[in-house]
Design a protein that fits this description.
The protein is of the alpha+beta class and 284 residues long. It has a domain of 152 residues: Photosynthetic Reaction Center, subunit H, domain 2 (Photosynthetic Reaction Center, Chain H, domain 2, Alpha-Beta Complex). Strands 1, 2, 3, 4, 5, 6 and 7 form a seven-stranded mixed β-sheet that branches. A hairpin with a 4-residue loop joins strand 2 and strand 3. The protein is rod-shaped, with a radius of gyration of 55 Å. One of its GO terms (cellular component) is plasma membrane light-harvesting complex. This is DUF2382 domain-containing protein. Pfam families: DUF2382, PRC. InterPro entries: Bac_photo_RC_H_C, DUF2382, PRC-brl_dom, PRC_barrel-like_sf, Stress_Response_Assoc.
Length: 284
């Protein structure tokens, strides 16, 4: 099965797993308190479980990087240390060297297990380690065949994750309506009054009351004598003209409001039950 590096499996591993701490750089010691190097990285399987710590031996074995099964290590978070059970310089020299750009396959892991199985059997960590059941690269399982190498609970340590729920507020922009502003033509009948002047000719005929005789020869009787008078009148001139009656400005404005939401959040708390008088460090 494929193995991945710690940061590839958990990009935020410092917060998610180690409470803001970083095991990379932890000092590595033997059971006899001899410093042998530091933690360079960790490898996890496809289920997310730790399988190996990458140990940089520094000057102990000429800067060689090797893989140590997690079942052989004990963590001391308070002192930023890792202790490897039964680790010797001969073991490190026998282990295959690890590099960042290599692929850790089944055959490579078998070489590692071949180094640590005899040591486990000799120290009594697992009585069944000396006689391994038959398996192949297709049937091998860490927890079935090499629990003493990969089961951290057997080394007196176990990790529990405490989860909590948090509220995250986001905003979604969505269309709630549409306003269409247009115009149309309405018709109406308008009436206007225009005063007009018209001229008319009035002919008045009167009979003089003083009838005097006209001097003979002063009257010239003629045919066709006429009097002319021009007559005018006003007519209505009605026209339609267009004017700007009103201007319409269209714009948008944003109003702000706060929406309050209430949710019930869950958080896991640690319960520690003790039997007897064990010494417990509650800082981690």
């Amino acid at each position: 099965m494929a193995l991945v590096k710690l940061a590839d499996a958990y990009p935020n591993y410092k917060q998610e797993i180690f409470g803001g701490d970083d095991i990379k750089g932890y000092d590595v010691y033997t059971e006899k308190d001899d410093k042998v190097g530091g933690v360079y990285d960790a490898l996890l399987d496809e289920t997310g479980r730790f399988r190996y710590l990458v140990l940089d031996t520094g000057f102990w074995v000429f800067g060689k990087k090797v893989l140590v099964p997690v079942g052989r290590v004990q963590m001391d978070y308070d002192r930023h240390r890792v202790y490897v059970t039964g680790l010797t310089k001969e073991q490190v020299e026998s282990l295959p060297e690890y590099s960042d750009n290599m692929t850790v396959d089944y055959d490579y892991e078998e070489r590692i297990r071949g180094v640590f199985r005899p040591a486990a059997a000799s120290t009594g960590v697992a009585a069944a380690a000396a006689t391994q059941p038959s398996y192949s690269r297709d049937t091998y399982k860490y927890d079935d065949h090499d629990q003493h190498l990969y089961n951290t609970a057997e080394q007196g340590q176990q990790r529990i994750k405490l989860y909590e729920e948090r509220l995250f507020a986001n905003k979604n922009r969505q269309k709630t309506g549409e306003v269409v502003v247009g115009k149309h033509v309405e018709t109406e009948t308008a009436q206007v009054s225009v005063p007009l002047d018209k001229e008319r000719v009035i002919i008045e005929r009167t009979t003089p009351t003083d009838t005097r005789e006209v001097t003979p020869g002063s009257v010239d009787f003629q045919d066709g004598e006429v009097a002319r008078m021009e007559v005018y009148e006003e007519t209505a001139d009605i026209q339609k003209k267009a004017f700007v009656r009103e201007e319409i400005n269209i714009r948008k404005e944003v109003t702000h409001e706060t929406v309050d939401a209430t949710e019930t959040l869950r958080r896991e708390e640690l319960d520690v039950d003790t039997d007897g008088n064990p010494v417990i460090n509650r800082n981690r």
